[in-house]
Description:
This protein is of the alpha+beta class. Mean pLDDT is 78; it is low at 1-47, 395-423, 916-970, 985-999, 1040-1047 and 1435-1444.
Amino acid sequence: QLPSSTTGCLPPCTMAGPAMAVPPLSSPGARDDAARCSIGSEPRAHELGFGEGDCVWTPCKRNGFRPSTIVHVNADDSLLVECVGEGAASQVRRSTVTRSEVRPYYDYGPTRTWADNTEMVHLDDANILENIRRRYLQDEPYTYTANVLLAVNPYKKIPGLYGMEKIHAYGGKGLGALPPHPYAIADRAYRRMLREERNQALVISGESGAGKTETAKVTMHYLTQISRTDHEHGGKIQDKIISSSPILESFGNASTVRNMNSSRFGKYNTMNFNRVGQLKFAGIQTYLLEASRVVRQQPQERNFHVFYEMLAGLDEGLKLELLLDSAERYHLLYAEGADPHTEGSPEQRREQVKFNELRAALSVFVSEDMQKTFWEILAALIHLGEAKFVDLCDASASTVHRRDSQGTDLGASCDAVHCDPASDEAQVKLSVESQDDVAHAAFLLGVRQDQLENALMWKERKVEGKPSLFSPRTRTQAEQTLQSIIKILYKRLFDHIVTQINESSRSGYAETEHEACRINSIGTLDIYGFERLQTNSFEQLCINLANERLQHFFIEEVLTAEQNTYSSEGLNVCSFELPDNTTVVNGISNVITTLNQYSLRFIKNLIPAKDDKDAKFCEAVHQEHCGNGRGSGPIMALRLDGAAARAGTAARRFDGFQIRHYAGDVSYSTSGWIDKNSDSLVPEIEALLTDAEKPLTQALGDRAGIDAKKTVNSVSTRYLNNLNALLTTLKACTVHYIRCFNPNDQRQPGLFQNKYVLDQVIQCGTVELVKIMHDGFPNRCNLKDLRERFESMLPADFQRYNNSQFITGIMMAFRIPKRDWAVGVTQLFMKAGQLRILEGLRDSGSSAGSDVVRRIRLFLARTRLRGVLHVVHLCVWSRRRRVLGLCHALQKASRTYVRLGRWLAKTRSRIYGPAKVEVEEPAPEEVLAPERPMPEWTTPPPLKSATACMQEAAVRCRADRRSPPIPKNAYGPQLFMALNSDAEGQYAAFLQSDINMANPIADDILKLWQRNTTESVLFHDGKEVICARLSSRPFLSGIGGPRSSNGPGDGRSLDDVRRVDCHETGRAFPAHSPQARSGAIPAVVCMCQHKVDRQIFATCDDQNRISMWWWSGTDSSDLERPALRIMGGLCPRLEPDTEVYQMCFLSAESLPRRIVEKDGRVLVLLTHKRGSKWMFLEVMAVYAARFHLECIQQVQIDSSGSERRDAEVSFLSASYSDRILLLGGRGLLQFWQILETPNGHIELQLIDCVASKFRDIKNAVMVSVLSTPPPLLLHGMQDWVMVGASDGVLYGWKFDKRQDNVIHLDEEVSGRFRGNCHTPKVPIRSLIGTFGGAPDAHHRQLRTQGLSYSLFLNRVPMDERGFYSLGDDGKLLAWSLMERQGWTMTLEINIFERSPLDGPRIACHSSRLVPHIMVIADASRRLLRCYNRLSPEEPPEDAAVYVC
């Protein structure tokens, strides 16, 4: 039990109440206990810290929650609690509950309450319910929750709660300055209207009997009293506003089971003020009057008040004139079991008083004569309710008669179907005792009795150009027509009275004044609450739809207000998650659309008479909107009761449906919906009313409905339009909320039923409001007031700090968790429960200690230093940005200068011819002698092949026996291919001169382009990069028409061998040149090629410099032109003790948007630091002028030492989708998923370490890898990866993506390839993907897409249904994907003999320019050669591939 304190006072807070009893914060235990107080409506277990002996709230079926004590904390995160039962024989009971069901309990004392729920230590539904209960029992029915007023109906008069004294007390006071009251909400709306010149709205909601109407009258009375209106004009308007309430109550309210004065309609009262706050006029807008109540009431309920008040209050003479008797038990007014009040009873006297008030109120708006016409219409409806019909025959068929316009029978038609062939009579007639009642009704309405009876018993069918046809109505149809007349006449009378009130309210207001002075309004919305009755019909659907829309609007408005507060205070608070009921609203709208469709079909007689029209409508709702079953959507089928069905009392399937609302599931009965949805009378009734003798009856008729076509005047459509207009009006206003609650279902004072009120709290959205307040900062205190309180606790030198720094220092010094508070511009924001921490500081009563002062000074000094550093960093960043901008401009100018120079050189070459290149032999002393002779690459003469199908050319180096051996690393040589892009423009002349007119021009252009284009072959052996030029002419001799002799290559397939300087000059030096033989070219230890843009490469030299460059190709006529162009101004350089093992690119498909938008590229490096047992995957983003390290991931790789040669890593590559990183080597095979974090950064997550699972992979070296597009035969696949091992085994791995975007390895489909014929123990050195099987494989796609040939070749994808595998012994296997067999070997051939040398020595790559050609590099023989896949049966030896 925490000690209480009464000393001191808390600085004024927003909506602050009395101070809270808390311990001083001097002890760490007290601070820890206070830190556990940030509890929301759904407690989080890690914040609660429940222990044995703690008091908590636990769920209770009867009372919602009950206080309990924790006995034991179980291991499964549940709690064993005990509570004391209720009643005289109370017993201690124990039960087990989960932590999520428990709410924290804080003992404030037996009488302590809070005017604002947000001031409580714990902000949740249990504590809010307890606070409301205590206040209600103390005759305090009003409570705040932030800016929302919660009102509980006291069912009694509380002395001093209202009156002029209270009105003057609340005038001009801020919200929270005085106890909660509707006056405070109304005053706040009035002041904001004057200050902001914006419309205001008071939304008052709650269930029937909660006091909405009384609360609305209280607020409107307050507004009329405080408005700055002159006495004479203001008195008239106030009289009209006050007088409208009894009129609307009498005509629109009724007695229900829950409420004696329940509003059966919604209304929006507007009070319009000018700029200075003078009340000028008022208006009323009504919504959805429950007109069906006029003809039918549920048990223990009554009709509208005006009927009973009229019978009790009219004088005997007028009642005799209206042919009424107050003692008569009228069918329209009294349901089964109900009787009229006896003469002189208290109920009758009360109704007499109400009727006198009604007449006095009506006198303000209409004359006495007009009032008499109202009573005549109401009396006529009572008499019509007494009418009863008698069947004349049992036949269901209709007899069609012709009648004239006066209803005279002209005889039966020849095609009429008679119920009796010898009879022309109708099927029904009025009973004898009902004829007088119909006559009285016709007299009071001013219509002819015979015409009224004919309209009830006969249905008129108009045929253009012919006499009208009349068919008799059945008894059911006649009764429905009678009820429709009663309902619609009463509704139109109600609308007519509302119109009279609005016109009278505006009568004293001039239009010219409206134009000269801006008018703002305060609206009061008194809307019906959520209804879930025993039988729910069409009216309940419309009411609950309005509550769904208003509930969503309420949550959005409160959220917007909270976020605006945080924004104005400069706080960055995360966005709130709102409950979304859009599916429910759309589902109800779809039901209403279906209802309108079936209403129109009924009017057009498209529903057979034998079918139940309501059941057909319900069946359509089930078929179109109910989905696959219960629980699958907002619209569901009814829950059928088996026992009731067997007893014959249960509802049938198509008797209704169920909707899942925000407040719970509600079952609706669709009986009578077609009739309730129609707001129009039959044309003959409309004609009868418009021709009536009484002016009011004529006004209630609709002339447009007489000659109208068969359309639906839908109640639901008009209601939806009114609801949308209401929400549009509310969105243009500043909205204030009052939530009304019914304390019990017995309408008794002093009785508070906890569970009953808790259900209303949930239904009205207060729980969502609590959640929003919990996610934000509900407690707020002014910084200035807090500083005044704490200044005395700190030394005088703290005066120099501003309020924000001062309060921040206080909060940090006392170690209050940063997540529980935030400092704004003018206020301190705190989580729920943190207010008592400040009160603990207040109650400590002593000055701050030296350690506290030291912490505050240290924090403020750090804050100031941090601010200075930010300024310095900003200045440095600004200067650096200027420097980088200048560098970028210089680079751009340099590139432009170089391009202009190249263009000028090419132009001069075309005009004057190529310049003669003279190579001057350097003097012997100028040539740098290398330490060891460099292997020389030469070009052999053209090969004379043995067959026409396969041409193979080779480039071989005369190897020097003294050259160093190839390093025994695991990854071996690498081979890349890219287009000679700079030479493409030189072939434009060939496209114009060599066109064969016998073929389409597009085919010839593509073939000539292909023949006159060359491709670069780049070979990397671990130390140097060698390039050669691949010409397509020798392989296209039969498809391109006549051969030209002036193209590149001159008949050779491979020539122009050079050594490339990737890091210094960017030039490619001929193999025999002195520059190539010298040691000036840096060694290249790693190299990779971009998978999408294949002209882009990245290399790392022996000095750990990483360079990214664009390959432009070589030109034999220009030896000085650079073969590559460095991309970007800055290149990453690693530490000297860091070694790069492998590197690869990631394409744009897997990169964050922020990198792609800045034209950045991403490299993945596998690095190792000497002396470390770990390797690292470093993801690096490279831009034009900078680079950025995205992430680093540790990788465990077995190695016998710390040198590079000890750890064998064969490959580091990205999969085809660029979502998986593939890493393989000795005893190593890992797959990493490439993820994008929510903040846009790249992250690596291990998918699987396969080597740790399989011993065969652990004992072998994974040598080669290939990822092709996922085959179409394997649906839903993310990636397909093939891996070749050192023991001659070929593996395939299938990856799938789950719904949570996590990639996983499908081990059931993955594994070894069947039918593998590679030699055991011989490594599968290369896996080769292909790009087509014929020389012109790409032509058709190019013609259809209209792409550039070079652009297409640069991004052409690999074939998904085939690949090749090549072993170190020269065995080449071809694999194809079969529909049933899967991956099948289709070719086995030996293309060369195995070399006796050990170590990796082979690399292979497919050409994109010539799809059927593969280029093979043999590092041990220093040999490059081509292999033609169109003739695999020809052995390579016959082609004489080994040439010098």
